[in-house]
Description:
Structural class: alpha+beta
Helix content: 10-25%
Number of strands: 6
Number of helices: 2
Largest sheet: 6 strands, mixed
Low-confidence stretches: none
Amino acid sequence: MNFNNKRFITRGADSCMNPLLMTFLWHCIDAMPPPKDYLQVFDLTEENGKQKITHIQEGPEYRREYLIDAPIFIGKIFAIDDETHSTMLLASEY
């Protein structure tokens, strides 16, 4: 999976997250080395007044953490590539 296709964001994710944060999450996927799993997981928390992002994939194992200045969102976001399009959604929408 490459995540090099049309990208979509569900209404739930769009209503909860700042567009800057969404763009940063897509950038995290673009910047990671291949191979990329079809499921990317972002665990979003707050640390010292900053947005903490933990980006994880299961296979092959990948984990990277970021601290950025952005409006804080607490929750879990999935990005799924099904070969024809990529979708970012709240974990609760899965």
